[in-house]
Design brief:
The complex is a heterodimer of chains A (530) and B (237). With 530 residues, chain A is mainly alpha-helical. Chain A contains 23 helices and no strands. Chain A starts with a helix and ends in an 11-residue tail after the last helix. Chain B is an alpha/beta fold and 237 residues long. Chain B has one domain: 3-Layer(aba) Sandwich (Rossmann fold). Chain B starts with a strand and ends with a helix. In chain B, 49% of the residues are buried. Classes of the chains: A mainly alpha (530), B alpha/beta (237). Chains A and B meet through helix 14, helix 18 and helix 23 of A and helix 2 and helix 3 of B.
């Protein structure tokens, strides 16, 4: 058997065996598969009437935008380090071996395709929303996964080729940027003409989505057109556009293999960069700022505070140095902007601000971990500072709480003004959202305290998510039950009950995770292999 | 100064530390030796209060989780982790503020000068090489002038000047009455100063060796290989 084939089969087999040997991983996979199955079953039983479905053309638009993000990222990667298709073990063992460089490239591409497929796994969880909004079945979800897989695989090869052609050549880099922009010019011009002609932006957008211009836009257009054609039963068109992705990928591979057999240097930088990122993660450096190449100007210096409060002042210095908005990054600005745009669609809806609150609360479950307080647990400093554990935890999380309070004030005041919500409802939304964030911090610490942080990151996130649902359930049930008894004012009463529950539950979580810095292992980010 | 009694640390079924006892007086330099995976870093992290464990650890009579113990203890980790957005000087300022130190500036200046960091005060943590980061990490641990310091592979990544300075600092600290626990694979680097050596294998302390226990022509390297490879030979036979 070829050594490369052996490597592929054996590593796949070993990955599978590792899942069987590690109960935590096995449970996680069983739950993921059960989740996909559950959502699939739910999509069958919750099918709505055909009248309420959106036109499938909007699915094409969503897919186009989604894949477009990957296109932009792939081009940017190609212009900086190239994409990662090899591991350091490949560099150290395969690149120096007498195996054919072209065969090794094929091996890298097959491995990379496997990763693209895994990356697209989350699409399987969308079957319920696809079914509810577009009236399509699980077969359509599989087609979306196929299109995504083909597009992302092609983009990884494209990224590698761009790096290989432009590395150290500024003129070529400029040319790639120009070509990339030029590819989208016809589409932008077409949208402009449509808006000028139709006047109505939604109509202009729909016309664009139905035009061949978008279908022939490379990669994002081909993939979205191919997927939607196959879902609609237009097999010829579907195979044509998905075939284009396959053909382009094959041609690019052929070009790389024939023109540049000495591609090792081109993939080395990306592989080493990825390896270095994993290494510093596993050594406790989980701040993404550590691996950023952005130049930082040091102007103001110094740290205020004394004892545990110096942790908070350190966070302020770090945040304001990392970006001009300080605690509020670009993501905060995008969230506020997104919420404002979303509110435009909710105008006139009585419960508009509640819908927004629900969405933001879901997002916050995962965004709360981006605060510096939780990241502080991954390095030794906070454990060794001679102050009480409680004081250190409070001061190290003040930064994220300050961020949340200001963000929620802006989001809900702006949204309330747009939707015309009463001031009292806006205030209630701010309180519920802020206290929910406080509760999430408490649940994070409780999950760490309960597990001792001695489990994989994936399982820890899973336990945390389940804990959020379980802890919120009584509060939500109480809020709905009691709120529904009071008619018009019930909304406010329900939100008041929810806020009180969040506060009580958060205080309970913090009390139960008392002494967290003494009773859990310093967490280690387990990066694992590809 | 450092008193470890019956430490046991398990990761699932793996016993990383198996009922370990260790004692270290002021002015003593203890060396922790052992092959990779022997459990040295786990023991060190447990002593510093970074891991949960069974058993007790006291620093000058205080439980290692108390602020009193933390005030007396310094720790240089195996992998230096700095704050990417803080300058070198701010790292020291942060430690000084967090530990409520008075008149720390002069000491900080001296440490930075010794480790050739005085011209890099305004460099950010993320801009430093691994060796430089290790030097800052050492300075952070030494700034509060702890009475007990634990070094986990402190020489890895340092340049020759850094190695010489750190060896000199370790020697001075020992002479000034500080208790030092050093884990290292570079046995020759501690050959001159060590007082007591703990040789670990498979999560256990296989031998405790005092300098006076050695024959005149016997080195620490000889003792180490005698224990670690001698046992393997016995198993093979």
């Amino acid at each position: 058997m070829s050594s490369l084939l052996f490597l592929l089969i054996r590593s796949t087999k070993n990955n599978f065996l590792e899942i069987l040997r590690k109960p935590g991983k096995l449970i996680l996979w069983i739950l993921v598969i059960a989740g996909i199955g559950g959502i699939f079953a739910l999509s069958i039983f919750t099918r709505q009437s055909a009248d309420s479905f959106l036109d499938i053309i909007w699915l094409k638009g969503i897919l186009f935008l989604f894949i477009l993000i990957f296109v932009v990222v792939a081009i940017q990667k190609g212009l900086s380090n190239g994409d990662v298709i090899f591991d350091m073990s490949d560099v150290n063992l395969l690149f120096v071996s007498p195996l054919s460089a072209r065969l090794i490239l094929m091996y890298g591409i097959v491995r990379m395709a496997k990763m693209s497929l895994l990356m697209g796994f989350f699409i399987l969880f969308q079957s319920n929303s696809l079914s509810a909004n577009f009236g399509v079945g699980f077969d359509a979800v599989l087609l979306v996964l196929l299109g995504f897989f083909l597009a992302v695989s092609l983009l990884q090869i494209l990224s590698l080729l761009i790096y290989s052609l432009t590395n150290g050549r500024p003129v070529r880099k400029r040319a790639v940027r120009l070509i990339s922009a030029a590819v989208f010019l016809p589409l932008i011009a077409y949208i402009g003409v449509q808006i000028a002609g139709a006047g109505e932006p939604i109509m202009a957008l729909e016309n664009t989505l139905r035009s061949p211009i978008i279908a022939w836009t490379p990669i994002a257009g081909w993939a979205s057109e191919g997927i939607v054609s196959l879902i609609s039963g237009d097999m010829g068109n579907g195979f044509l556009f998905l075939g284009l992705l396959v053909l382009t990928g094959a041609l690019l591979i052929l070009y790389i293999a024939l023109s540049n057999p000495d591609y090792y240097e081109d993939v080395l930088v990306a592989t080493e960069t990825a390896f270095e990122k994993k290494r510093i993660l596993s050594e406790g450096q989980i701040n993404t700022e550590a691996s950023s190449t952005r130049k930082i100007k040091v102007s103001k210096v110094g740290i205020s505070g004394i004892g545990a409060s110096s942790v908070f002042h350190k966070h302020l210095r770090e945040s304001f140095r990392a970006n001009r908005l300080g605690l509020w990054s670009i993501s905060s600005a995008l969230t506020i902007l997104g919420a404002a745009l979303f509110s435009l669609f909710l105008r006139g809806e009585n419960s508009g601000i509640i819908i927004l609150l629900q969405i933001l609360m879901w997002m916050q479950i995962f965004l709360i971990g981006t605060g510096r307080g939780l990241k502080e647990l991954y390095s030794h400093y906070i454990y060794l500072i001679p102050e009480s554990s409680f004081r250190k935890i409070v001061w190290s999380n003040l930064e994220i709480m300050l961020k949340v309070v200001v963000e929620s004030l802006i989001i809900f005041v702006v949204s309330g003004l747009i939707t015309g919500a009463p001031i009292i409802l806006i205030a209630a939304a701010v309180v519920v959202y802020t206290l929910f964030s406080f509760l999430l911090l408490g649940i994070n610490y409780l999950s760490l305290r309960w597990t001792g942080a001695d489990i994989s990151t994936g399982l820890l996130i899973f336990i945390y998510t389940i804990a959020v649902v379980v802890i919120m359930l009584p509060g939500l049930a109480g809020a709905i039950l009691i709120g529904s008894m009071f008619g018009e004012i019930g909304f406010l009463i329900g939100m008041g009950i929810l806020a009180i529950w969040e506060l009580v539950a958060a205080l309970g979580c913090f009390a139960l995770s008392k002494g967290i810095l003494h009773h859990c292992d310093i967490p280690v980010m387990k990066t694992g292999g590809r | 100064m450092i008193d470890v009694k019956g430490i046991t640390k398990k990761y699932g079924k793996l016993v990383a530390n198996d009922n370990l006892n260790l004692s270290l007086e002021s002015g003593e330099l203890a060396v922790l030796l052992g092959p990779n995976g022997a459990g040295k870093s786990t023991l060190i992290k447990s002593i510093c209060g970074l891991l949960r464990f069974k058993g007790t650890v006291t620093i000058n009579g205080h439980d290692n989780h108390t602020p009193e113990a933390k005030r007396l203890l310094g720790y240089v980790p195996e992998f230096p982790v700095l704050y990417p957005m803080l300058t070198v000087a701010e790292h020291l300022e942060f430690i000084a503020k967090a530990y409520r130190l008075d008149g720390w500036e002069k000491n900080a200046e001296e440490l930075l000068r010794r480790f050739e960091l005085d011209d890099k005060k305004l460099k950010l943590g993320k801009e430093l090489s691994k060796g430089m980061q290790q030097k800052v990490s050492v300075c952070c641990a030494l700034l509060p002038q702890p009475k007990a310091i634990i070094f986990d592979e402190p020489l890895v990544g340092l340049d020759p000047h850094g190695i010489r300075e750190l060896k000199a600092v370790i020697s001075e600290l020992r002479d000034s009455g500080c208790a030092l626990l050093v884990s290292t694979h570079m046995i020759e680097s501690v050959e001159e100063n060590w007082d007591i050596t703990y040789i670990m294998m498979n999560g256990r302390i296989e031998r405790v060796c005092r300098r006076a226990d050695l024959d005149t022509n016997q080195s620490l390297v000889d003792v180490y290989f005698d224990i670690t490879e001698g046992q393997q030979r016995e198993v093979t036979l």
